[in-house]
Amino acid sequence: MKVKKITLIVVSVLLAAYVVVAFPFVKLLKKDDCCKDIDINIDYTESVKFVSYDFISSQLHEMGIDPIGKRIADIDIADIEKRLKGKDYIENVECYFTSDNRLVIDLQPLHPVMRVFDADDSYYVNKEGKRMQSNANFFIDRPVVKGRFTPEYQPTRLLPLIEFMENSERWRNLAGMIEVRDSNNIFLIPKVANHVINLGNTDGLESKFAKLARMYNEVIPVKGWNFYDTISLKWDYQIVATRRKGGSRLNIVVSTDDDDEQAPDISTVATETNTNDSITH
Questions:
Q1: Which residues of 108-136 are buried (b: 16+ CB within 10 A; e: fewer)?
Q2: 19: CB partners within 8 A, 6+ apart
Q3: Phi then psi for 168, rounded to 5 degrees?
Q4: Confidence (pTM)
Q5: Rounded distance, CA 235 to CA 122, Å?
Q6: Of 166, 219, 165, 164, whose CA–CA distance to 195 is shortest?
Q7: What would the pLDDT profile of 134-183 be if each residue is shown by its tens digit?
Q8: Phi, psi of 155 (to 5 degrees)
């Protein structure tokens, strides 16, 4: 029994020694191998197909980091990841080698949540605020936002509004555009209704859209879709609807001398002046 134990110990020690000595040579041998090919896996689950295998392959070549034919020891995977992540059209990327000396690139294209028109510039933005310049070669259907943004007020400030509307079956297709006049005057431009909606800011969206639903359900059917120029939801516990007096639908300050039309006989209507209908909620 003692002889067997000694034999097993000796064998174990020899195996361990072999692994310790042989492993560096195996690793060195692999590092001396060359990269045979690249596999580019593109995740389209949350994005449109504006990035392709051929495009990424050509980008690697243009950046001088095409790995095919190079020694694995000379290929800096971390650098490839960093340089690809620096591209505005990429959300995330991970690189690694397979046992048969192929470089795998797992890539997620940018997933924009809005398209922004900022003065003379146009770009897409993801949830983290990363921007991708608009390109005539592709179109991504995302909510359109217009405004003059600053480092203090970025387009990502609108994410709560966009997410709220995207998650609502009723409001998902309401707006053709979101226009930001300033931080306290965010306007929805409906696709079909002949008025604009002033949300104020992105606070209290549940309450604001509940008031809008009430306006659409109780007042608009009586007054008609063309009666109001602007519906303002920015104040607590009331809706202020501005009567139309011709001109642009984006004209906020209007007045009318038409007193023949009375406010709808609905309990939600509190007062009416020559300029505004003030409706409590």
A1: bbbbbbbbbbbeeeebbbbeeebbbebee
A2: none
A3: -110, 125
A4: 0.72
A5: 32
A6: 219
A7: 987 778 889 999 999 999 999 999 999 999 999 999 999 999 999 999 99
A8: -55, -25
